[in-house]
Amino acid sequence: MAVRRRPSIPNQTAAPPNPDPGGDPQPPNTAPSLDQFSLAPPKLGLILSVLALFLIPFFYLLFVHYQVESDLRYYISICVALSLVGFVFTVGLIPVAARYLLRRNMFGYDINKRGTPQGEVKVPETLGIVTAIVFLVVAIVLQLCTLTADSDWLVEYNAALACICFMTLLGFDDDVLDVPWRVKLALPFFASLPLMMAYAGHTSIIIPKPLVPYVGLSVLDLGVIYKVYMILLVIFCTNSINIHAGLNGLEVGQTVVISFAVLIHNLMQIGASTDIDYKQAHAFSIYIMWPLLTTSLGLLAFNWYPSSVFVGDTYTYFAGMSLAVVGILGHFSETLLLFFLPQILNFLYSCPQLFGFVHCPRHRLPRFDTQTGLLTGTNDMNLVNLFLRLFGRCTEKSLCIRLLIFQALSCLMCFGLRYILAGWYK
Amino acid sequence: MAVRRRPSIPNQTAAPPNPDPGGDPQPPNAAPSLDQFSLAPPKLGLILSVLALFLIPFFYLLFVHYQVESDLRYYISICVALSLVGFGFTVGLIPVAARYLLRRNMFGYDINKRGTPQGEVKVPETLGIVTAIVFLVVAIVLQLCTLTADSDWLVEYNAALACICFMTLLGFVDDVLDVPWRVKLALPFFASLPLMMAYAGHTSIIIPKPLVPYVGLSVLDLGVIYKVYMILLVIFCTNSINIHAGLNGLEVGQTVVISFAVLIHNLMQIGASTDIDYKQAHAFSIYIMWPLLTTSLGLLAFNWYPSSVFVGDTYTYFAGMSLAVVGILGHFSETLLLFFLPQILNFLYSCPQLFGFVHCPRHRLPRFDTQTGLLTGTNDMNLVNLFLRLFGRCTEKSLCIRLLIFQALSCLMCFGLRYILAGWYK
């Protein structure tokens, strides 16, 4: 469950809280001075290419391939524009926030570089708070631009904002106070409560056709059980991203891949459907996913290998909650779960260690060899180590890329699966 | 603007971050061990008496004096019951959270006790976060109990939750990172944005009858200007509580007095009116004010003189936002401002110092005399010092009580004023 940082609580780390152990001329009581610290420049070239790689197919589908109503096209374009503004603000605010976080002793050491000079650098933590706050402001402003005061979607939008905001608050509290892991597990439950109230949709599921003779019904109304399912979905999405972590850029990277898959899915559903409510549900999801995508890319500009900032549980909880919220309020939670396939596999594979049947160390990370610079897989039961054991040793960056390619292929496969099965399944 | 704490950032305080300056047997790097720290017991006798003092007149008005519909009585009673549960949780969680906050070096020294042994004690800071989180959970659960899924009030309720939650998040980020004061001022603006969208009410004001001949209209529709007024109200409520501070228990105490006045006002309006929407607006306010009142009393149990915890900007922003939100969504913002009269006076009197015309020290606090244990007023331009100059030196506890009595009398006077003027004014 641990994210890849050394806890920055003084009595749990080997390094003294005093930032000048070598007896610098600075008085021993000062935290790193604000003037001395400067962040490595963001990897904008990479990030902007990725962004272009997303924008081109998205706009192709929106304007060329599908016949979408012009007002919906207009709102979606505004959404993208505001999200890009959010991207810029995220990139601009992260260095500022990093200085304040470092001054407050919220930092970690990069465990996967231990033994090299980079392993001694204090990396600012919890920069996910910048992403979350910029996201919330963009989402609120977007609401002002796209929804009228009497729209039916206002309830859902405000409930979504309340949930995501509450999750961010609890996640940030966790990063600051380092709460026990049992409390960590329960936090998403509380944050999802506004959603339980606002969810005014159907609570029935469609039984897959092959199972109808056995179940006896074609549509099953789950009622309260559906709400329990929703809560479980929220708890799963938040925590599964949190445990599929440990490499520079993995947490943000997987979120970026999944949210882009969700965006394409939303657009395809809008293009293929004629039901107004159905289109509105997917448009709603787009209004939340685009800000998530661009603010996450802004964070990734600093968090991609080699990380100059760490994201904190604030980010993984915020991202997981945002994804769960759109899946629930957009009524496509089953498809969302298909996109989460690597996370599901990672969770299932991790179960023995998570539940204590197999010994679970504090960090289930690979072993770093300082001489070759490569990671070697340990026997820990998660995807990170599994990939190392299956495909051999490699650098941290290649491993992360491999896992993200796996995430992307998985989403592609799910698209294919969904469309092949559509006739047979529903 | 400063709340009464020494900044706990190591390079700004004279005391070293090392918790064992005297060279204790503990290793010099250890933060205060979780086992050693224990909070003074809460002042439950005082707080429960105050609570009873509130409950008795409230229930008298609700069940005896006014003819209120039975379902509304039922919902309000549920609201009070859940709020009392919230009180229990707040009192239970504060000692737990205090240990984690202290471990994270979030503490301050009590400046008004400097020179005495109590001035050396590390007082945990930012316990307002416990109040805010318990409040949010109670408010969400209350929503499940009192509103149906298709109620018109769902939008307003969720917008209120989103605002209060966002304000708490920004307030907590401020307490952790200690942002510059210009940013502090702007935070309530961002947090109030969901409210701007959800406010679907009238944006016109009723011109006082005596002024009608001059204005030429009896009702003036302000439109967008009303929304600006709402934003200013939010910024005012949050920051005015923040600057009317500096004594043990003053911030929470004033909030408790104001919210109780609001509750009585709400009940009186429900009792005196027959308009369904109007009653619903005031019921909505009750559903938010009761949790605020009880969770604040839970905090006051520890924060009352002598404070064993400090509340942080998290609390003052959270409380200010909650009060502004009910005033706006309940459509009684003018009455709310009347209750804020001491805060208005304090703000106006403080203006020369706040705007730099007169020199403004970091803390505009009275001078503490260690030998007599009394506070003496300085020439700082705020109510705290003014009271000392007008009424003579006294202990911190008496001064706080005097200021709270002033707050209560001012609310009483506003009740009287409102009812005397009702015929003449409207």
From TrEMBL, chain A:
Chain segments annotated as transmembrane: 44-68, 74-102, 123-142, 154-173, 185-207, 213-237, 249-272, 284-302, 314-332, 338-358, 399-421
Catalyses which reaction(s): a di-trans,poly-cis-dolichyl phosphate + UDP-N-acetyl-alpha-D-glucosamine = an N-acetyl-alpha-D-glucosaminyl-diphospho-di-trans,poly-cis-dolichol + UMP
Pathway annotation from the record: Protein modification; protein glycosylation
Principal location: endoplasmic reticulum
Subcellular compartments: Endoplasmic reticulum membrane
Assigned EC number: 2.7.8.15
Biased composition (Pro residues): 16-30
Family annotation (InterPro entries): Glycosyl_transferase_4, GPT
Keywords: Endoplasmic reticulum, Glycosyltransferase, Magnesium, Membrane, Metal-binding, Transferase, Transmembrane, Transmembrane helix
Enzyme class: transferase
Keyword Cytoplasm on entry: no
Entries under PANTHER family matching the protein: UDP-N-ACETYLGLUCOSAMINE--DOLICHYL-PHOSPHATE N-ACETYLGLUCOSAMINEPHOSPHOTRANSFERASE (PTHR10571)
Protein name: UDP-N-acetylglucosamine--dolichyl-phosphate N-acetylglucosaminephosphotransferase
TrEMBL record, chain B:
Cofactor(s) the protein needs: Mg(2+)
GO molecular function: glycosyltransferase activity; metal ion binding; UDP-N-acetylglucosamine-dolichyl-phosphate N-acetylglucosaminephosphotransferase activity
Main location: endoplasmic reticulum
EC number in record: 2.7.8.15
Family annotation (InterPro entries): Glycosyl_transferase_4, GPT
TM regions (residue ranges): 44-68, 74-102, 123-142, 154-173, 185-207, 213-237, 249-272, 284-302, 314-332, 338-358, 399-421
Biological or metabolic pathway of the protein: Protein modification; protein glycosylation
Localization (cell): Endoplasmic reticulum membrane
GO CC aspect terms: endoplasmic reticulum membrane
Residue ranges, annotated region (Disordered): 1-32
Pfam families hit by this protein: Glycos_transf_4
Alphabetical list of CDD domains matching this protein: GT_GPT_euk
Gene Ontology terms describing biological process: dolichol-linked oligosaccharide biosynthetic process
Protein role: UDP-N-acetylglucosamine--dolichyl-phosphate N-acetylglucosaminephosphotransferase that operates in the biosynthetic pathway of dolichol-linked oligosaccharides, the glycan precursors employed in protein asparagine (N)-glycosylation. The assembly of dolichol-linked oligosaccharides begins on the cytosolic side of the endoplasmic reticulum membrane and finishes in its lumen. The sequential addition of sugars to dolichol pyrophosphate produces dolichol-linked oligosaccharides containing fourteen sugars, including two GlcNAcs, nine mannoses and three glucoses.
Name under which the protein is recorded: UDP-N-acetylglucosamine--dolichyl-phosphate N-acetylglucosaminephosphotransferase
